[in-house]
Write a structure and sequence with these properties.
Blueprint: E1 9-13, H1 17-28, E2 32-37, E3 50-53, H2 59-67, E4 71-74, H3 81-89, E5 93-94, H4 98-105, H5 107-116, E6 124-127, H6 130-139, E7 146-150, E8 160-163, E9 177-181, E10 185-195, E11 201-203, E12 207-211, E13 218-223, H7 229-245, E14 250-259, E15 264-270, H8 280-283, H9 288-296, E16 310-316, E17 323-324, E18 326-328, H10 330-334, E19 339-343, E20 348-349, E21 354-361, H11 365-378, E22 380-382
Parallel strand pairs: 1-2, 1-4, 2-3, 4-5
Antiparallel strand pairs: 6-9, 7-8, 7-9, 10-11, 10-12, 10-14, 12-13, 13-16, 14-15, 16-21, 17-20, 18-22, 19-21
The protein binds adenosine-5'-diphosphate and magnesium ion.
């Protein structure tokens, strides 16, 4: 029986907010999207076509789920890649490919890949234990400052330890980690690239981030960035190059540092929709979510043009609240032109938990930033 590209059964591993927004974009194209998720109160529940209860890190759960699908994709890297490889061998389309995901899941392997592919990234060393790191510091073969990272399962700054002075050595992470040279950061930027199996690629405009000093989460993000056109082109070119070299199908979000001396260095990549692309829903011709679906279905990629300047802020649970969520002052924010809250539908708030985001658009970026500051001051996630 002939199946059109759009009638393929899509399976997503994970049903968090990124899965939810993929389903929302998919529903516009009438797509059939199933979610594998072990938590039964997941954000994508209200918008997916169907739901299978299972563990995305479990080999059998992923294989059984994937066997019923035509195309399998992810919304989080922490999935069983051996199962994805088995599905590929059965002839299933798995995007991103398991080979790329195996590299990306391990920040050590990512760094080895950058080094081998001559992609600019800070110098690094792999370590098996914190004792090895301490011994290198004592020997003088490792100099403070440096940044230590868990090789796997880090996210939102968890699993990153910045060592600025010898006092910070008490907080070294146990186990297999990597240590990177500390970059003197001028700004942090990201470029999201979409690529389909035919090899067509599109890059979204560069976004620039500002980080929350305590939670180490993106505080707000804006687009267009403050970079010169030449620097933006350089960032875009690098992101396209990495996407091709990793043979990505779907999205690749490329996080980069612009150093004080003007060099662009790759920080890390994520082969899925990304926090730095939330604003594309309101601000770009095609959202990152629709773009991911177009790419994995081998459809023509849409335009990535920025239609209007945008600011995005994450809505994090306030530090002192835990329990049934309340969005304080949400109505005030809804009354401001160009302010678009996205609430993920998580029932419980916890300190710094990502509960939603707000995109603020305005023809004038400075006005959008002003409005974002008002939202940031007034809209609070409490219980
Ligand atoms: N080599 C580095 N030099 C300076 N700051 C860094 C370095 N690596 C990471 N950071 C800071 O830590 C943040 C989180 O690191 P990252 O590797 O992106 O972890 P996560 O997976 O949690 O996003 C970065 O966005 C940046 O602010
Ligand atoms: Mg990061």
């Amino acid at each position: 029986m002939h199946h059109s590209k759009l009638s393929q059964k899509i399976g997503i591993l994970g049903g968090g907010q990124l899965g939810k927004m993929l389903c929302q974009a998919g529903s516009i194209l009438g797509l059939d999207i199933s979610i594998l998720e072990k938590d039964t109160t997941f954000p994508a529940a209200s918008v997916c076509t169907s739901f299978v209860c299972g563990d995305i890190t479990d080999y059998d759960d992923v294989v059984q789920f994937g066997m019923k699908m035509d195309v399998i994709t992810i919304e989080i890297e922490n999935v069983n890649t051996d199962a994805l490889e088995a599905l590929e061998q059965m002839g299933k389309k798995v995007y991103p490919p398991s080979a790329a995901l195996k590299i990306i899941k391990d920040k050590g392997k990512q760094k080895i890949f950058y080094e081998g592919s001559e992609i600019p990234s800070s110098d690094f060393t792999l370590y098996k234990s914190r004792e090895e790191i301490l011994s290198d510091v004592v020997k003088g073969t490792l100099n403070i400052p440096f940044v230590q990272k868990s090789r796997t399962e880090g996210y939102d700054g968890k699993g990153v330890q910045v060592v600025r002075s010898s006092d910070d050595l008490d907080f070294l992470i146990e186990g297999a980690t990597l240590v990177e040279d500390m970059v003197e950061i001028e700004s942090e930027i990201a470029v999201i690239v979409a690529r389909n199996p035919s090899g067509d690629m599109k890059a979204f405009p560069v976004v620039e981030m500002q980080f929350h000093p305590v939670a180490n989460l993106v505080e707000f993000l804006f687009c267009p960035s403050s970079l010169s056109n030449i620097k933006q082109l350089e960032a875009e070119k690098l992101a396209l190059e990495i996407t091709e070299k990793l043979d990505i199908v779907g999205l690749l979000a490329v996080e980069m540092f612009v150093s004080k001396d003007g060099a662009i260095l790759i920080n890390e990549v994520a082969p899925r929709p990304h926090n730095s692309g939330h604003h594309t829903i309101e601000a770009c011709s095609t959202s990152q979510y629709e773009m991911h679906l177009r790419a994995i279905l081998d459809l023509p990629l849409g335009s990535t043009e920025l239609i209007i300047p945008a600011v995005m802020i994450n809505l994090l649970g306030e530090p002192d609240y835990q329990g049934k969520v309340v969005y304080q002052n949400i109505e005030n924010c809804l009354s401001i032109d160009g302010v678009y809250p996205h609430l993920y539908g998580k029932k419980e708030t916890k300190p710094y938990r990502k509960m939603g985001h707000v995109t603020i658009v305005d023809k004038n970026l400075d006005i959008a930033i002003e409005k974002a500051r008002i939202v940031q001051k007034t809209l609070k996630v409490i219980s």
